[in-house]
Design brief:
The complex is a heteropentamer, with 1 copy of chain A (299 residues), 1 copy of chain B (212 residues), 2 copies of chain C (272 residues) and 1 copy of chain D (259 residues). With 212 residues, chain B is an all-alpha fold. Chain B has helices at residues 4-46, 49-64, 67-77, 83-108, 112-120, 125-155, 167-178, 182-210. Chain C folds into 2 domains: 1-109 and 187-272, Rossmann fold; 118-185, no CATH class. Classes of the chains: A alpha/beta (299), B mainly alpha (212), C alpha/beta (272), D mainly alpha (259). The structure holds adenosine-5'-triphosphate (2 copies) and magnesium ion (2 copies).
Chain lengths: 299, 212, 272, 259, 272
């Protein structure tokens, strides 16, 4: 533990010390510790590159349970969360999100051979099958909004895969990259993943993107970070060079025009537009109400 | 800092977890511990040394090592068991090792005169246990068993390690969703106090009543 | 030592004829760890005899009674009851331990009353008394109950059968304990300082019951007591112990009024 | 089998490195706080004027009545949010462990004071000893011998209690083992952890017993009293001490005040 | 009741003149919860007098000694020591509780020996004896030590100063306890059944020490005992209690041989 939340001068301090402490959730391939005990992963790679550009050479990691990431950030246990956290309105109220770093699609991890023939949330609706979701992940909220009955909550992606592998759950919903990587890394686990999908609620694509999170008062750090981030995200080649080794492609590169602000405000229409390019259109007029609640149990 | 809204939102949620999970785990875990504890206590006394020694070691080993590790090991080793089942079994077995100690103390607290009187009357061993020793020992032991049950109740949050949705696991989840633990953990703490203090007072009453 | 009677019990098991002593200690050795309490003790007690054991604290009196009751293990030597071996038999000159069953058969002839009463607190007075007759001798509950009520009458507690031990005074508890021992119809009764734990006022009632018992039955009694008057009134013979040895024995009248041994004299003076 | 051992070989350095350090720091710090809290609260409960004793009692009941896990979260997240006082991971673990088990320890202290025979308290009055002399010279040395078995039990409980400090972001043995599970497999990781915990408990317990023996020999206590003390300790731990306080303790307590 | 002496001690505090009794109980009431043990008890003890309290169990003998030692709180009434109030004083006709300091000053004149010896097990015999003189009276260790060795000699244990209490027999422990009480130079010594916890053999040595003490000092003694012979030998007066009342009192020779009261007669018969 270090001193409390700070007065927003974290950037200065980190630059002085040359070190910044970030929390990660231990999720392959975003941010995790490899077998050599080194901190690595796609979001880590991006952050390290950015921090280096800001004169902070040393990135220290702290593994934290998903639920505790933002509470720990706000009480000053670490300076940033590098876990590819989805940018959601509720979260934006409590913490400051950088501009989108990577785009999310979801997938279902199912038993080998996909015995129930599942493809997305819609295929589960009404079947009574058990769906595992990770505590605090956006799929948890989506499953809830869709009214899926039999959900169980797991603490980590590993737990979710275990749940599917040993039959405690019929499917496990999480981001595509995470689960695909895990399925590849564990060929003997007896699991596979479905094709990626973007959940649709009330006809609106639940577009989501993840980024690094800072304390609200650390505006200087956030701005400096965003500036460097734009240089990577804006450059397809550089983006793929940085995160390619973790299985990410140009498909995960945030489209130009998509901002954290849109996602923070839950403005899915704007997001849909940005994602589909200038000409893209959506059919719903007032979707904000329903999307606000994507990630929470309340209304 | 403090949001009444969140507080009132957390109350019913955690109360539900409390009744549906925490209490269920405590009750079933206690049943397991009460029965297994007596089995350990008598077995260690009556088995031939060659069997009693390893059993005693096992019981001691379990008692002296942490519950969270036991939970994790059993949870991952037996995939077919649900987290709830694992939680109940492990916490029950863990506390049975404490209750075994209580039974043992209860049996030892019976004055040697009782054993000697039974010998002087030529009562056979089985009858001595059943009619003389156990009725007195269990009476002596009951308060202690009750207190271990309360201790177990307060240890149910350890099940957070295998995500059994008991009260504190739910409180953390709730906190994670609202990015603050203040209200939820307060509710959890208060519910614990509300439940355990009166029970402890009751146990003390029972203890006084049971004293010969 | 004046009492070294040693009528070689060479055969395995005597028939119960009148010539055999009720109790015989033969070369009895008892050690606790490295301390030797009894070192080759020999004595015998006849049928119907009442023998009082006196001697300073630690001289081994209690140990003798406990050996007879099989509450302690014999380190060496033999104890015979009516010529039957108690815990060890001599076979072909060798010392052989008996099976628990065999021990139990002989032990049933012996009853004991303890200093601390040792009633079972979880049972009523009546249950205390009928427990062994029913579960050891196999009597019917009815039969045992009738007998128990008789015995309770005899010790002056006919109306307290349903009380719990804790509701009784020490003197009453001890009288129940006597009744409980008698319910097994023992041939031998061992009494180890049965009044030492009682308030002085309550001693009389217990001694009264025992005096009555001595007068009206022919149970063989081995008594350890500090109540010299009682010892004198009730016993046929007194044995004075010191450090596990019998240093003097004889008629109570003689021992209490004019002991031969200096140590006995001292002891009796101190106790009075 | 060789997989198992190579797994253990991989796991051990990590368990015995950072993991063991975090566990031992939590334990050692927690133990110191525990004893301090226990002695202060126990003495206050037993000897102080009623109003102060009630406050101590409330503190004890607060910590014994809720769960260690809740207390950890409370000290780590709730108190800093509400008061701005942030202890950080290590201190939070030490304070929460120390207060939680210290509350049980207060019962051990109080029970032991009660167990000092009434005659000893009365004799100090008969000799007109002032409070400090009475406690320092007569009562405490005897109570200390009686409370050591209880503290022994609590130390073992405390070691086991450290297994939850990963909830406040310390990478203790349990946390490391859970991480290593993916790398070296379930059994090598967790069996190693269990054995390490067992050995720590064994060492601590042996040291405590040695201390017990020393203190008790000083009082010339026999085996019986030592066993009695152990039994009382277990009972006290399970929260049963209060009943005794009502009967046996009242006399001694009144004693304690009137000088 | 024959003993209702009531010399109105109206003034707050008497000078220590010879006319004032050493101990005076005035209208003393003692209740435990709802049971009244003493109900307006009056008696006094003169300087140097030795008074034995006898009576059946529960009659309040111990309670009287404990009240004097301030081990129990007075429910009502007054206790005067040399005319000084012990725990409560009368001021303007009102009963006023004294401060702990004041209580302590008077209490220091009183010593007590308990049935259970209560030696401090964490100290040697010598430390037991010098503890209070050093820490309460403020004597130097050397001074206290010299005195302690004298006292140990007197109780026949001059060579056991470095022993630990647990290494001594009961009789020896009790003699150390007597020495410890004497080390405070008390004017009054309270003895509550000091031989009841001893083996019969050891009673004599303790009574011997006390008899010697009675013969060679003029300490005022209040004695509770079941040892009637000792009571007769040592005391100037015997008070017979029943249910908290003095039902008879007088010279020991008279009371023990020919009591007036029927209850006394019964009691003495039962105890003998
Ligand atoms: N269980 C035991 N372990 C060790 N020593 C024992 C044990 N029981 C008795 N002893 C020792 O054996 C010796 C004889 O003891 P015993 O109780 O027979 O004496 P006693 O004559 O009955 O004395 P008392 O009059 O005090 O009852 C004593 O020295 C005693 O310390
Ligand atoms: N602490 C107490 N609480 C309640 N009642 C008590 C207490 N101490 C004594 N009593 C009661 O006070 C009465 C007198 O007791 P006390 O001990 O003075 O009698 P005693 O004459 O000394 O008897 P004994 O010969 O048995 O020692 C008894 O009825 C006893 O039960
Ligand atoms: Mg004996
Ligand atoms: Mg008394």
């Amino acid at each position: 533990g270090d001193d409390g939340g700070g007065e927003g001068n974290t950037l200065e301090r980190a630059q002085e010390e040359g070190t910044i402490k970030i929390a990660y959730a231990g999720e392959i391939p975003y941010s995790f510790e490899n077998d050599e005990g080194e901190l690595t992963g796609a979001t880590i790679a991006i952050d390290e590159e950015i921090f280096k550009a800001l004169g902070i050479d040393n990135v220290e990691g702290q593994l934290v349970e998903w639920d505790a990431l933002i509470p720990g950030l706000n009480k000053g246990e670490y300076d940033a969360v590098s876990a590819g956290m989805s940018i959601l309105p509720d979260r934006c109220a409590k913490a400051a999100f950088a501009e989108p770093t990577i785009m999310y699609t979801s997938t279902l991890m199912v038993a080998e051979g996909n015995p129930e023939g599942l493809s997305d949330f819609a295929s589960i609706e009404g079947t009574g099958l058990t769906l595992a979701v990770q505590s605090g992940a956006i799929e948890q909220g989506q499953a809830q909004d869709l009214g899926l009955e039999n959900t169980m909550t797991v603490n980590s992606a590993q737990d979710g895969m275990d749940a599917v592998a040993n039959g405690r759950a019929d499917a496990f919903a999480l981001t595509n990259i995470t689960l695909s990587t895990m399925a590849e890394d564990n060929p003997d686990a007896g699991v596979e993943t479905t094709d990626a999908f973007v959940a649709e609620i009330d006809g609106l694509k639940q577009i989501s993107a993840g980024s690094t999170v800072f304390r609200p008062e650390d505006t200087a750090l956030l701005e400096a970070y965003n500036e460097e981030l734009a240089k990577i995200v804006g450059d397809e080649q550089r983006f793929v060079e940085t995160v390619g080794e973790f299985g990410f492609t140009d498909a995960e590169r945030p489209p130009e025009g998509l901002t954290a602000e849109m996602l923070c405000e839950g403005d899915l229409e704007a997001a849909n537009e940005a994602a589909d390019g200038a000409g893209g259109s959506t059919d719903s007029e007032d979707s904000t109400g329903s999307t606000d609640s994507t990630d929470s149990t309340d209304g | 800092m403090w949001e009444n809204e969140l507080f009132f939102e957390a109350v019913p949620l955690l109360l539900e977890a409390f009744i549906k999970v925490t209490l269920v785990v405590t009750v079933l875990g206690t049943l397991i511990a009460v029965v297994l504890g007596l089995v350990w206590a008598i077995a260690v006394r009556e088995l031939p040394p060659l069997l009693a020694a390893p059993l005693r070691f096992l019981v001691d080993f379990i008692r002296m090592t942490p519950l969270p590790v036991h939970l994790l090991v059993i949870y991952y080793a037996f995939n077919s068991l649900s987290a709830m089942t694992v939680g109940i079994l492990v916490i029950g077995v863990h506390y049975s090792t404490y209750m075994a100690e209580s039974y043992r103390a209860g049996i030892e607290s019976i004055r040697s005169g009782q054993w000697e009187a039974a010998t002087a009357l030529s009562l056979p061993a089985s009858r001595t246990w059943r009619a003389v020793i156990l009725p007195q020992a269990i009476r002596n032991t009951l308060p202690s068993l009750g207190n271990w049950a309360i201790a177990m109740f307060k240890d149910t949050p350890f099940l957070i390690f295998i995500s059994v949705p008991e009260m504190v696991t739910r409180a953390r989840e709730f906190g994670g969703q609202h990015f603050t633990y203040v209200e939820a953990m307060t509710v959890a703490g208060v519910l614990f106090l509300l439940a355990s203090y009166p029970t402890a007072v009751l146990m003390r009453k029972l203890e006084k009543k049971l004293a010969y | 030592m004046p009492t070294d009677q040693n009528p070689d019990p060479a055969t395995t098991s005597h028939p119960h004829n009148g010539g055999v002593p009720r109790i015989q200690f033969e070369d009895v050795v008892k050690k606790f760890g490295s301390t030797t309490v009894l070192e080759g003790l020999n004595f015998s007690v006849d049928r119907g005899e009442r023998v009082t054991l006196i001697g300073p604290s630690g001289s081994g009196k209690t140990t003798i009674l406990r050996l007879l009751m099989t509450l302690e293990e014999l380190t060496d030597g033999y104890v015979w009851v009516d010529g039957d071996p108690l815990t060890h038999d001599r076979r072909d000159g060798k010392r052989v331990e008996l099976k628990p069953k065999q021990v139990s058969a002989v032990r049933k002839r012996i009853g004991m009353v303890f200093q601390q009463f040792n009633l079972f607190p979880n049972m009523t007075v009546l249950q205390n008394i009928i427990e062994a007759p029913v579960h050891v001798l196999g009597q019917s509950t009815e039969q045992a109950r009738t007998k128990a009520l008789e015995l309770l009458d005899r010790v002056g507690l006919g109306d307290r059968g349903d009380a719990h031990p804790m509701q009784l005074s020490g003197g009453q508890q001890q009288r129940v304990a006597i009744a409980r021992a008698l319910a097994m119809d023992p041939e031998i009764l061992l009494l180890d300082e049965v009044t030492s734990a009682l308030d002085p006022e309550l001693v009389g009632e217990v001694l009264g019951v025992l005096q009555d018992l001595a007068a009206t039955t022919d149970i063989t009694m081995l008594i350890v007591t500090h109540e010299m008057q009682f010892a004198q009134d009730v016993s046929d013979r007194v044995m004075m112990f010191d450090s596990g040895h019998i240093i003097e024995e004889g008629l109570p009248a003689k021992i209490f009024s004019d002991p031969d041994n200096e140590r006995t004299r001292q002891f009796l003076q101190a106790v009075r | 089998m060789s997989d198992f051992f190579s797994g253990v070989a991989t796991a051990l350095p990590r368990l015995l490195g950072e993991g063991l350090l975090a566990t031992l720091v939590s334990f050692a710090g927690g133990a110191v706080v525990m004893v301090l809290v226990a002695v202060v609260l126990g003495l206050v409960e037993h000897q102080a004027p009623a109003w102060l004793a009630v406050i101590a009692r409330v503190i004890v009941e607060l910590f014994r009545g809720s769960s260690l896990v809740v207390q950890l979260f409370f000290f780590f997240y709730v108190i800093p949010t509400l008061t701005g006082v942030d202890l950080g991971s290590t201190w939070t673990a030490i304070i929460a462990l120390g207060l939680n088990y210290g509350a049980y320890g207060a019962e051990v202290v109080r029970g032991s004071l009660n167990a000092v025979p009434r005659g000893q308290w009365e004799t100090t009055t008969a000799l007109s000893m002032p409070w400090a002399t009475k406690m320092r010279r007569v009562i405490w040395p005897q109570a200390w011998a009686l409370m050591l078995p209880g503290f022994n039990n609590l130390m073992v409980m405390l070691i086991k209690g450290t297994a939850v400090v990963s909830l406040v972001l310390l990478s203790d043995i349990t946390f490391e083992a859970d991480q290593l599970r993916r790398q070296v497999g379930l059994w090598p990781a967790f069996l190693s952890a269990l054995v390490i915990y067992y050995l720590i408990a064994l060492v601590v317990s042996t040291v405590m017993r040695w201390g017990e023996g020393r203190a008790q020999r000083r009082l010339g206590l026999g085996d019986f009293q030592i066993r009695q003390a152990r039994r009382d300790a277990a009972k006290v731990l399970a929260g049963a001490a209060a009943a005794e306080a009502g009967s046996g303790g009242s006399g001694a307590r009144r004693e304690g005040r009137d000088t």
